[in-house]
Amino acid sequence: MSNGQAHRANIQTQLGGMFTTHTTDGTITGGTFTYNESDMRTIINNWRDLADSYQKSMSSADIMSRIDPPAEDFASRTHAAAANRSGDSYKQYLEHNRRYCKEQAELFQRTLDEYLDIEHATITEMNQTAPEGPQSGI
After folding, report:
1. pTM more than 0.70
2. Contacts of residue 102, Cβ cutoff 8 Å, sequence gap at least 6
3. Long-range contacts of 50-53 (CB under 8 A, 24+ apart)
């Protein structure tokens, strides 16, 4: 087995636990991570800011796909067409990344909403089951 194959086998072995246990908790690094509400809001805003940045870049890059040839000879037309294709490819790249950032922001927002709903339900349930309501010092 080559080094590359051994490396891939090692990765597959370590990642295999995620698919059988449906958890990523410490599968590779042995560590864990948690986010609080403030962290989640910061992450959501960062993803949205990044999406906005891609949107601005798309507006600026529009001119990159509208290059006119400087002359009507074959070389000028060919170079302008190649530049326009390159500009279109760059705009597609920016759009893909903008969409990805928006999707990530939406995923984190849904996760935060679910977390807050669960936390609210838990607090409501705890307050209803306490015989005398919340007690100070506990």
Report:
1. no
2. 47, 48, 51
3. 50/101, 51/98, 51/101, 51/102, 51/105
The per-residue pLDDT for 44 is 96
pLDDT digits (tens, 9 = 90+) for 32-62: 778 888 999 999 999 999 999 999 999 889 8
Q: Could you tell me the residue ranges of all domains in the chain? A: 33-129
Give the residue among 63, 61, 45, 47 at the shortest CA–CA distance from 94. 61
- Helix, strand, or coil here: 137? coil
The single-letter code of the amino acid at 113 is D
pLDDT > 90? residue 14? no
Question: How far is the C-alpha of 46 from the C-alpha of 51, rounded, in Å?
Answer: 9
- The burial of 101, by beta-carbon neighbours within 10 Å (0-12 exposed, 13-18 middle, 19 or more buried), is given as buried
CATH class of 33-129: mainly alpha
Counting every residue written for the chain, the total comes to: 138
The answer to whether 65 and 84 have CB atoms below 8 angstroms apart is yes
